[in-house]
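Question thread 4412

I'm putting together a teaching handout and wanted feedback from people who do this every day. The idea is simple: show students a protein as raw sequence, then show them the structure tokens that encode its fold, then repeat with a second protein so they can compare. Below is the first pair exactly as I plan to print it.
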Amino acid sequence: MYLNIIVKLTLGTAGLFLIIRIIGKKAVSELTPFDLIYFLVLGGMLEGSLFHPEVSIVHLLFALALWGVIVYAIERTSKKTMKTSKILQGEPSVLIYEGKANFKELERNNIDLEQLRALLRQHGCFTMHDVNYAILEIDGKVSVIRKDQDEKPSILLVDEGRVDHDTLESIEKDEGWLREQLQEKGYGSIEDLFYCEWVPGKGIYAASYQENLEKDYRLDG
């Protein structure tokens, strides 16, 4: 019995380690809702196998393997299309835009005025009048740009060769405009871009895969 528990616990720990490696290096506060589901389901499988003798090691191995395949498939699928990525990972919400509260996004994220004020105070903003932009990130944190900072958040238009048409529409632009801007910067194919950002008043910033590192680069050892 004790040997059975030891083996199951070891396999469960190995499975958890594998899923962490699949998801990548993230702090707990940076986990998306789907990341949390991964761990909750795995924890439930491990707990159920430990305290139910009728669940054999073979059953646990099969469950871990199946769950690993599902996690890997979801992670790969989320990288193929923008819509799938937004559904699985979520997307940032602009709560305050150019000093004005975005009531639609506040309601969508179930944030009332007092909650918003509390989030802003954590960034040293004790009045909403001081805030130019407030963005609710996908991990639940809020990023704030004060009016005295004279900065604007960048808008991601291309993510790993994929055009975000919904974002283009939200800024009243289209793919034709995007391609013209990229051609002026010397970029031909959108599919070859690692990313493309647009900053209002400043323009387009982009980088192709060839302009980024594809090598092991270690700081120590």
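The second pair follows. I'd like the answer to focus on this one:
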Amino acid sequence: MSKNRSFKNAVVVVTGGARGIGLATAKQLLDLGARVVIADIDSELAQKEAHDLGALAVTLDIRDHQSIQQCIDTVEKQLGPIDGWINNAGIMPMGAFVEEPSELSQTQIEINLIGLIAACKMVLPGMLSRKRGRIVNVASLAGRFGLPGAAVYSATKFGVVGFTEALREEYRDSGVHIASVLPSKVLTELSSGTDEGRLIPAVTPEQVADGIITALSGKADEVVVPQSLSAVASAYGALPTRVARRFRRLIDDHRILNSLDHNLRKGYTSRLAQLTVLKR
């Protein structure tokens, strides 16, 4: 697959594909000629969006290994071998760490990290046997730059970045390309109730989708969105602690804790609470 060559007829699964980044990515892939699967826990919304776009909808709870395998089986039965898998499903609770319910912390880890790892483990064998395929794991700049007010989320995204790097090197000569995408704040429901911040620009789902397509094409191992922050993301880890902390104060990294508007996040918080109920 390449952006220079058409994605025509490539079978690509987008997890969390019914909203936000996932939906924007599905639309771009369809425009490029791919056969797209919108895989989402919200089966009703997935069916609606898939119907409107001309995609295939599959119900997927990324926390459930059986659900992942059923998704893979359904896709391969209806469309054929999977060429690309985009691990986009994720949640982002915000607030003080000690106030976050343990069940919600566990749900984040299950969705953002454990489910992503499980999906890779289940989709990789087929790609390896065919000696071709692409996996893109959507992480975050919070996977390089731990974010106060989103401690567990940051932990999961650090995990995604490290896991993706290790997996990519493990299978670097296999014909399967494994990449990560690290967006800054994305203007979706996940970031509702937060201010615009300082110095670190917010991005749209469509901009992140562009980065995902670049990663899926095999042209990059890691894509930072916006690209202008690539150097910052690379250099941050090398900064002395004292300098890094000054930088954090400059960008006001505590703004989530200090200015989070819980009223604006009510709808999203309600959906997160429902996710924890569904798992019981």
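Top answer:
Good format. For the second protein you could add a caption like this: The chain is about 50% helix and 15% strand. The first helix runs from residue 20 to 31.
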